[in-house]
Amino acid sequence: MENGKLQQTLAGCIELSGKTLHSGKVSKVKIWPGFAGEGRYFEFHSNLIPASIDFVRESLLCTTLCKDGYKIRTVEHLLSALEAKGIDNCRIQIQSLDSEDTEVEVPIFDGSANAWVEAIEQVGRKEALDRCGNNVEKLAPYLSEPFYVSRNDSFMVAFPASKVHISCGIDFPKVPAIGCQWFSSAALDDSYEKHIACSRTFCIYEEVEHMCSMGLIKGGSLDNAIVCSAIRGWLNPPLRFPDEPCRHKVLDLIGDLSLFARSGSRGIPMARVISFKGF
């Protein structure tokens, strides 16, 4: 059990809509309070897709969930906010303007998780009850031994710990304005809202044409990402933090780790997690 805590849900309903990053379409998201023990899950065309690692499919530049031929893309910012703000159980109803679409994407807003955090703060949270009216303990996964995974020059390592601590590093030697950065945070305390949630997604200007040729970032703009040129530096300053790109990687990692949640318990393990040049 996580320090005697009980599972939580939203105290009201959240409804937001906006343009998406990769498809460029507009989607609408409505998040409903959920029953304890049922966790976080998406509803798309009446199909239920749990926000679980079991349904993750490989995709470029975003985290994608897939079940029975239906895909939900770019879920990491929303799930990051829900995990960090302690919303353990909820139903995330999502739809695109085209009723024939078999895939949909979560809106990008300004490229950060700010919109979701503000919406959660506005409606508040409450103790979640199961379908029998009982509260349920909130469990947290833990490590019994160190864990390590790598791919090329990227790696992630996690060590058993008494509390959550995340460190991320990035390295762009050909883009001097970014260079090598590291950022560390307790992740699930008050620092998330102040120092992580508001960090925006970023891209390298010289890679934009290639990404567009692959059918990506059709909805990308200087309003929903910070863009850096290897030659000219940042094209849409000011940054919210000098190390905003690295902080955003922490935001993404929290969203991805949330996918390890089971039955309304926490996804992020009690561990010291270190990630370099995230996958």
Task: Walk me through the structure.
There is one protein chain. The protein is α+β, with helices and mostly antiparallel strands and 279 residues long. The chain has two domains: 8-127, Ribosomal Protein S5, domain 2; 147-276, lpxc deacetylase, domain 2 (lpxc deacetylase, domain 1, 2-Layer Sandwich). It has five helices and 19 strands. The strands form five sheets. It has a five-stranded mixed sheet. It has a five-stranded mixed sheet with strand order 12-13-19-14-15, with helices on one face. The protein is globular and about 60 Å long. The model has no long low-confidence stretch (mean pLDDT 95). It comes from Gossypium barbadense.
Mean pLDDT: 95
Query: Which CATH C-level class of the largest domain is it?
Result: Alpha Beta
Instruction: Count up the domains.
Output: 2
Helix count, DSSP H or I runs of 4 or more residues: 5
The backbone outline, from C-alpha atoms, is: globular
**Topology pattern, helix = H, strand = E:** EEEEEEEEHEEHEEEEEHEHEEHE
Protein name: UDP-3-O-acyl-N-acetylglucosamine deacetylase
Cofactor: Zn(2+)
Keywords: Hydrolase, Lipid A biosynthesis, Lipid biosynthesis, Lipid metabolism, Metal-binding, Mitochondrion, Zinc
Pfam family, one: LpxC
Write out key terms for the chains shown.
single chain, 279 residues, alpha+beta, Ribosomal Protein S5, domain 2, lpxc deacetylase, domain 1, 2 domains, 5-stranded mixed beta sheet, 5 helices, 19 strands, 16% helix, 33% strand, globular, metal ion binding, lipid biosynthesis, mitochondrion
